[in-house]
Amino acid sequence: MRKRRLYCFLLLTLSCTTMVQAQWDMPLSHYWAVRGFYNPAFAGATEQIRTAAAYRYEWAGIKNTPQKVVITADLPIEFLHRRHGAGMVFYGEQAGPLRNTLLAAQYNFRGKMGNGALQIGIQAGIYSLQFDAGSREIVPVSAIGKQSTMHVNAVEEQLPDLNAGIVWDDGQRFAGLSVLHITQPRFHTFNDSVTTDLQSDSARIAIPRSINFMAGYNIGLLYPLAIQPMVWIQSNLTRTVVQATLRLEYNKRFSGGFTWSPGEGYVVFGGTTFQDLEMGYAYNRHTTGPASMSKGSHELYLRYDLPLDYFKPKLQPHKSIRLL
Fold first, then answer.
1. b/e map of 71-109 (b: 16 or more CB within 10 Å)?
2. The overall pTM is greater than 0.85
């Protein structure tokens, strides 16, 4: 009788445990604000020093769910009479006590193409892993009798990571294509329940390549109202996520809009600009999959632009001695 109860409990636990589909580069609601994170060819696309940061609290109401931070900075540079771009990216993802981080540098070359500019970029960085982001597992309330919890497999490795992309931009329209994790960095998962040799190639897991396509158009025919439709498609060849966005901007100061992701959910967002500081908030409601058990995801972002000569020493005013 006791064994039968144990078998029933194990069957209930296995049937109620839901695997989150493996995906390393989870989409941000404000993807257009930190687009350099998904495509290094966007670095240096403006005539300013551009900095941006996004914070995402994912799947509220589920214990140990991911919290993510993305910070980007880039600027245009010139040497050998050519226009180039340079940037940096920091990414941090925390799930309970475990955390993954990425620190990377970006470079791109810019040339003319038609009425716009064609940029080809590359990014190289180091991933510091402490958990397997592709092994996220949600155990619902019915299985353990308390708050739903997310579990992940532990990892301890540092891996080189390489991305590349291409962008065309004419100031009003842009389109970019990128490939992330080109070398598919491989690592060992440290799981006590696994008795296989962790040093064998069969026990190694790879971060899957991710293909990203992003495009947008700034329609300014109704000034001071600008309409900015955008689309972002991300695929790792086993799962594809599409986000279609309609963003409205009034007088270059107030903004808001709506994003729809087929099979995933929707996002409502709004923001404002004060002098050179832009800030915004987004609420993401998940309608399908394990994330639908949550109370949604919350996201904040900041973007600040500096003039290129901001860090150059300023000339001090002085009086001519002939006028004294």
1. bbbbbbeeeeeebbbbbbbbbbbbbeebebbbebebbbe
2. no
